[in-house]
């Protein structure tokens, strides 16, 4: 009988160790996987804009592929105040964006190769096919809700980090 209890105790201890090792591994894997946006499925990363010493933090979706960049925020009906979308330009180039099929007004922020804002197309008009252009070589384009840059005082020369 004693051997039976010892075997049960040993099996329980092994199960507990095994379970916590599995849980720890699963938690470790989950922690290393990039966050994904629930609507787009794109990777979500932190991004900050520094203006006059004040840091404004955002969580942005990253549109990396040509397809993801062509779609952007088309057909989306809303976005959180501290959310946005980042379009890395590899290699850097003079960027041009439009608002075709884009439902919400956006601030289109052109970021130069020094990671400073070149210019902003503020409150871009939904559905407009007007080309909104960078005033120089562009490393990335950041889209925020229309009016958000002005609300936070963000403007040309401000530093963008991601």
What is the secondary structure topology, with strand pairs?
Blueprint: H1 2-32, E1 35-36, E2 43-51, E3 54-62, H2 66-71, E4 83-97, E5 106-112, E6 117-124, E7 132-145, H3 148-152, E8 159-161
Parallel strand pairs: 3-4
Antiparallel strand pairs: 1-2, 2-3, 2-8, 4-7, 5-6, 5-7
Comma- or semicolon-separated keywords:
26% helix, 8-stranded mixed β-sheet, globular, single chain, Jelly Rolls, 2 domains, 8 strands, 162 residues, alpha+beta
Radius of gyration: 23 Å
Q: What is the C-level CATH assignment of the largest domain?
A: Mainly Beta
- Secondary-structure-derived class: alpha+beta
**What's the number of helices?**
3
β-strand number? 8
What is the H/E string? HEEEHEEEEHE
CATH fold description of the largest domain: Jelly Rolls
Give a description of the structure:
The chain is α+β, with helices and mostly antiparallel strands and 162 residues long. A hairpin with a 2-residue loop joins strand 2 and strand 3. The chain has 2 domains: 1-33; 35-161, Sandwich (Jelly Rolls), CATH 2.60.120. Strands 1, 2, 3, 4, 5, 6, 7 and 8 form an 8-stranded mixed beta sheet that branches. The chain is globular and about 35 Å long. It has helices spanning 2-32, 66-71, 148-152, and strands at 35-36, 43-51, 54-62, 83-97, 106-112, 117-124, 132-145, 159-161. It is 26% helix and 41% strand.
